[in-house]
Design goal:
Layout (H helix, E strand, L loop, with lengths): L23 H24 L5 H19 L4 H10 L16 H20 L10 H12 L1 H6 L4 H7 L1 H20 L3 H29 L5 H4 L8 H11 L1 H9 L10 H13 L3 H18 L1 H17 L6 H8 L15 H19 L10 H4 L16 H9 L1 H19 L7 H20 L9 H34 L18
Helix pairs in contact: 1-3, 1-9, 3-4, 3-9, 4-8, 5-8, 5-20, 8-22, 9-13, 9-22, 11-13, 11-14, 11-21, 11-22, 12-14, 12-21, 14-15, 14-21, 17-19, 19-20, 20-21, 21-22
Length: 509
């Protein structure tokens, strides 16, 4: 006689996986609502016109009231509007009162919605999802660099002077926890990705318009596309980071003909990235593509890499002239390119890197304090350098926040990559696409930040933190699905057993 453990399992009782219906009316309604602020922002920027302030503030107030009221029961519209506005916040400043602008107001509304929904649904205020503790420790430890300033020669007065910059640093962690706790589940997380893609399309459209306006200008500096971030390196970094979901969806569905409609968009974005003349962005894009291909499949990655190298060898003209000019640092008469051993910018960066390393070695645990590098760098450089940034995110953190903070930052990037790596074989095509996107985004961020500090404010890196929150919810959905499948397998021969009920805050809206 068979024991209980040997009892045959009725495989038919375990349902096959079917992707959830996550779009439909919620997505359509939110997109229709978003069209109002999107048009309000994009049309004046695209055509260089100014709307009358009564119209602008009147529409903004009406949209804000609608979002606030609705957010008490459904914060999706509020989150979507925040996603759309975040990368534009430096260009489209909405001063509501002294010290209060559009970003602060949207963040405040999100925090109110966070508290209201957690209370109404009787769920924990902080949800313990994958990566949340790591980000919390990084946020706390790195923010202690503000206190370090008080006990440094720079003192409390300098802390007050750089308080807005410290707030901008803390804002990115607030964005992560707001989205982590207001995203309802994996179904809503999928829609959040769509809103991110809409924001990316809007930003790339504005960048393309600026690129067309600047074509034919005499020098590289005049031709560089600043984008809504108002800085070419920041704009290039944002485009590379935020292109990751598009890359993931494309590679996860590469054998479907309709997916190739994304190819023209990729070409436009690539052209805008090239027009930023940001070498870090170019290298980051290459690193992101490699990470995406590796997650898609090692053989696929090798095949695409060899194909790309072969294409360049056969047709070197595929490399845009603007890239060659930037690498060579064009000099002299048109058509005469002299390659310097190191241009002045690169030489200055090496000097600043050495200064940041020396500062790190002097105070390896807590660093010199937030934004102390611009005030102290002259003590460590061979000669005066005008730039005040470390031009390296890892040295930015280690020199001002300590080596432990830098390690935590690296662990956050690794967490995103491995969250994606663990989802790369999921039966849900959308989740597989986001797994590829996670590798693309983490890889590009790791490389771009070797050549600049591109993780210090939400208009550049906000989508990274939102996407990390999305991945946490998708990972949780997979774990719950596996748990339910295991329960169904184990109890399929016991029809009288009822499945465990999920708490109200774990069920679909």
């Amino acid at each position: 006689m068979n024991s209980t453990s040997d009892t045959p399992v009725n495989r038919d009782a375990v349902p096959a996986y079917a992707p959830p219906a996550w779009a439909g009316a919620p997505l359509r309604n939110t997109i229709l609502f978003l069209s109002i602020p999107a048009l309000l922002i994009s049309i004046p920027l695209a055509f260089d016109i100014s709307l009358p302030k009564p119209v602008l503030y009147g529409v903004a107030a009406a949209v804000g009231v609608v979002m606030m009221v609705r957010s008490f029961r459904d914060p999706e519209w509020l989150l979507a509007a925040f996603i759309l506005y975040m990368p534009l916040s430096k260009m489209v400043v909405v001063p509501l009162a002294p010290g209060v602008n559009g970003t602060n107001m949207l963040m405040l509304l999100c925090i109110i919605a966070w508290v209201a929904n957690a209370t109404r649904e009787e769920r924990p205020f902080f949800r313990k999802l994958p990566g949340s503790k790591l980000v919390l420790w990084f946020g706390i430890y790195s923010s202690l660099s503000g206190l370090t300033l008080i006990f440094s020669p720079l003192g409390f007065s300098y802390l007050l002077a750089i308080a807005p910059l410290l707030k901008a640093w803390i804002d990115q962690f607030m964005v992560f926890f707001i989205f982590l706790n207001l995203i309802r589940d994996g179904i809503m997380a999928r829609r959040i990705v769509i809103y991110m893609m809409m924001g990316m399309i809007l930003v790339s459209f504005l960048g393309a318009m600026e690129m067309l306006d600047k074509q034919g200008l005499a020098t590289i500096e005049k031709s560089r596309v600043l984008g809504p971030q108002l800085q070419p390196n920041d704009h290039g970094a944002f485009l590379v980071y935020s292109l990751a979901p598009f890359i993931g969806i494309f590679l996860a569905n590469i054998w479907r003909l309709r997916t190739w409609v994304l190819l023209p968009y990729f070409l436009v974005v690539a052209k805008v990235i090239i027009a930023t003349f940001s070498r870090g962005a170019w290298l980051g894009l290459a690193a992101g593509a490699f990470g995406a291909g590796l997650t898609r499949g090692i053989r696929f990655s090798v095949a695409m890499g060899l194909l790309g190298i072969l294409a360049i060898l056969i047709m070197p003209q595929l490399i845009p002239d603007s890239i060659m000019a930037r690498i060579a640092h064009t000099q002299g008469q048109p058509g005469q390119i002299q390659v310097e051993e190191l241009d002045r910018s690169s030489e200055n960066r090496l000097i600043l890197w050495r200064a940041a390393i020396d500062m790190t070695l002097e105070d390896p645990v807590f660093g010199k304090g937030f934004k102390a590098f611009p005030r102290l760098k002259a003590r460590y450089t061979e000669y005066d350098v005008m730039e005040s940034d470390t031009h390296n995110m890892y040295l930015f953190i280690s020199s001002q926040m300590g080596i432990p903070a830098m390690i935590l930052f690296l662990l956050v990037l690794a967490r995103m990559f491995f969250l994606g790596w663990g989802m790369r074989s999921d039966p849900d095509t959308f989740i597989r696409g986001m797994a590829i996107a996670a590798a693309a985004m983490s890889g590009s961020i790791a490389v771009i930040n070797m050549f600049g500090s591109r993780m210090i404010n939400i208009e550049v890196d906000g989508y990274f933190w939102i996407f990390l929150a999305v991945l946490a919810h998708l990972r949780t959905e997979i774990d719950e699905r596996h748990g339910e499948a295991q329960w169904a397998t184990e109890t399929s021969h016991q029809p009288d057993i009822e499945p465990a009920k999920h708490p109200v805050w774990d069920r679909q809206w």
